[in-house]
Write a structure and sequence with these properties.
alpha+beta, 5-stranded antiparallel sheet
């Protein structure tokens, strides 16, 4: 009798769980549909979506995305730009249609009565993310990277000086905050071993305060140790890797180099972007950056001409 009751309760729980999942899927589809069809056309011919907080505008023959004071992409049609803006929003809202959660092996180690993620705990058939042992609290990884170089007038002495930036290629990996939340909800301790997921765009990183030693050695072959090093910033009250003026020794802040539009590494005109030199560094890199961009308006075309 007890066994029949147990089976019945188990069956009911499965049915209830299925109903809940269907309701969640329906709400997810409704949110996406509402966001996708909420574009408004302005008198200037631009498109604005209040849900996505994005504006699609035409500039220099291409459609671009303005969102949260940043600019993305270079699209042939407004529809493609709208689709890309929707995908960005879906990624932030954790609404992308991803495969199921990565199941953990049965032989997971136990710490304090809870499951501890290890590298062996990652199943090879799960494609959402990978588990890595984090050495220095890094949040980004790549198999190789680009070192960008251009010139800028020093804010102190006004002499033209080289400045540098790091570009991560499409397919680089970033800490997956959503995966961490999922694992913690399942009772898994996320401490030393962290989930990273691959990104489908290239990225310009800023405010970097950690670079893996082997990658840093390769960078110094192009910059020298005195022209790119850790310097304290009174603006953000922290130290990070900054370009140093060769004439007066003043540290050039990322805010005026790469963190906003119309700076040396985020120029508003393609002709200025073509002046940037890119060096391909065939070395794995792990780094910690406060900010990194989602794509770049000129990145693809610029690389075709300026990569060394």
């Amino acid at each position: 009798m007890k066994e029949r009751a147990h089976r019945f309760a188990l069956k009911i729980s499965f049915i209830f769980e299925g109903v809940v999942q269907r309701i969640k899927a329906a709400f997810r589809a409704l949110r996406i549909f509402h966001a996708e069809h909420n574009w408004h056309l302005s008198k200037k011919g631009n498109f604005y979506n209040p849900i996505l907080e994005a504006t699609i505008f035409r500039s220099q023959g291409y459609w671009k995305i303005a969102r949260h004071d940043e600019y993305f992409g270079q699209f042939e049609t407004a529809q493609v730009a709208q689709a890309y803006a929707l995908r960005m929003w879906m990624r932030e809202q954790n609404l992308l249609q991803l495969p199921g959660k990565s199941p953990l092996r049965q032989d997971e180690s136990r710490v304090g009565g809870k499951d501890m993620v290890t590298e062996d705990a990652y199943c090879e058939d799960a494609v959402d993310y990978k588990i890595y042992k984090r050495e220095a609290n890094e949040n980004l990884k790549a198999e190789f990277f680009y070192l960008a170089q251009t010139g800028k007038d020093c804010y102190r002495c006004r002499i033209r000086t080289p400045v540098y930036a790091i570009i991560l290629p499409e397919g680089f990996e970033a800490v997956d905050e959503y995966a961490i939340e999922d694992l913690e909800e399942e009772g898994v301790v996320v401490d030393e071993y962290i989930p990273f997921s691959a990104q489908d765009y290239c990225s310009l990183v800023s405010y970097v305060d950690y670079i893996s030693p082997s990658a840093l050695r390769e960078i110094y072959k192009h910059t020298g140790e005195r022209s790119f090093c850790m310097e304290y910033s009174h603006t953000i009250k922290a130290s990070y890797y900054r370009s140093i003026c060769y004439a007066c020794g003043a540290a050039q802040g990322d805010h005026f180099i790469s963190s906003k539009l119309n700076t040396p590494f985020c120029p508003s005109h393609f002709e200025d972007f073509k002046k940037i030199r890119f060096y391909t560094i065939h070395e794995k890199i792990s780094l910690r950056a406060r900010t990194y961009t989602i794509d770049h308006p000129f990145m693809e075309d610029g690389f075709l001409e300026n990569v060394a």
